[in-house]
Amino acid sequence: MTFDAQLVLLLNSLTGKSGFIDGLIVFLASYLGYVLVVLLLVLVHFSAYSRQKKWELLLVAGLSAVIARLGVTELIRFFYHHPRPYLALPDVHQLFAETSWSFPSGHAMFFFALSTAVYLYNKRWGIGFLIATTLMTVSRVIAGVHFPSDIVAGAILGSAIAYGTFLIVRKRAAKNED
What we know:
Number of domains: 1
Radius of gyration: 17 Å
CATH class: Mainly Alpha
CATH superfamily: Phosphatidic acid phosphatase type 2/haloperoxidase
Shape: globular
Strand content: under 5%
Number of strands: 0
Largest sheet: none
């Protein structure tokens, strides 16, 4: 058995023992993302950033997240089919259903792209977003819907896409300021 599979089984063994813990895992894995998006909008709205900087942050965060999730994730999944842990491994307790392929994690791609973009503009906010995204994605492993490698790949690719998007937008913004 691979280390990836062993880690899923170890983390997934936390489920099925407490309704409260299972509910918390489902919240973190499925709904925390909505909280992060709303929180980003609220933080940006009430920030002291200029109007241009606010729009730039939202553009980089939104564009990189969408490219990561709807572009790169789907492109990889079109060519590479990796089943979810609850389908591939016996004894995995599934807390909720996911029907698409497992690799890479679309949640990890989207929210690590978003969180990295936030970090590139505001380190303090970014650290909070990265911690929340890590909790969300680890919860998806605990819930039996992702392997750790799905999360790691999504985190790396999502962060790289955010950084690339940031560089392109900053370069264009600097060009427009001249």
